[in-house]
Amino acid sequence: MKILYAVLFSLLLWSCSSEKEASAVTIEWDFQRVEREMASTKSEAEMATLLSKHPEISVGYFGATPSNAPYLAQDLFRLYANPDLRKFYDQSQEAGFFGGDALEKELKEAFTKIQQEFPGVKTPKIRTVFSGFGGIGGGEYTAQNLVVSDSLIIVGLDYFMGSKGLYKAPNVYEYQLRKLEPQALVAQIILQYSAYLIKQTDNDVSLLSDMIWYGKGYVFTKTILPSVPDSLLFGYTQQEIAETNAFQKEVWEHFIDRKLLFSTDKAIKSKYLDERPKTTEIGPACPGGIGRWVGWRIVDSYWKQKPKTTLAKILTDPEANRLFLDSSYRGEADKK
Fold this sequence. Notes:
By secondary structure, the protein is mainly alpha-helical. The chain has helices spanning 2-23, 34-39, 44-53, 55-58, 69-81, 83-92, 102-117, 174-177, 185-193, 207-224, 230-234, 238-246, 248-257, 266-273, 290-305, 311-316, 320-327; strands at residues 31-33, 125-129, 146-148, 152-156. The protein has 17 helices and four strands. Strand 3 and strand 4 (152-156) form a beta hairpin. It is globular.
């Protein structure tokens, strides 16, 4: 009995020390909801003052130049005074979208976990904006869903209002909208940010190398955000996910039979890696970007073969071909 108590006590101490170690990780956190500041301005002068404090927004997001910068504040202030835009903005501040501080909490938790996996990596500054899809000026300003670098992330919240938003982002198709749902935002940020942690051999421009590059990003994102649904990460419907899992052997054989893995042809690579409604070269039901999905399966299989390998090691090992060979992946589904 004494031995049992000793074991239980040791486990308790180990658990407590692990929790303390996780909580001891600190990051330099700089997160600002700039769109809320924009919405609260009372004059064009206030908007101009606000933008002067955030050149990363005026230049980095809207692409303002010395010649048109003076008019950006004017256009933005008038935009927020527009009843339709204001109603759209107010919707974004509801609990089901980006109200409260849930977004900040989720992102801070994610980047804290990234710091645990990659000690010493600098956490980027994060800013949020809302511009009605860049509906300002006469086309001289830019706007997009995400601007991501290793030092700064700017989020266009209006682009992530999803299917229930009052307005849909222009030139966005149904298959793309799934990755623009509010619940997909954090995952899409982390996925894009992963590009600054991944290393690949520069002179390897094969389809396989690109597939594994994308696969590393998906493995990274699923590790940092283990509860994110695949539908929000890959943009596939539940049916597409189920069918792709079921027929991945056939998908893999398509790549092998046509000797595609080591192709460097840009046109061929775009068919299997670019965003498309379907990868019709494989079949009418095969979802687009299937090469990215297969890349994830390869990297995931590699980690299962070498479970003691760290996430940092997987992302920074530049040899894609070696990773593929060590993965032993040949289109097999996970064993249940």
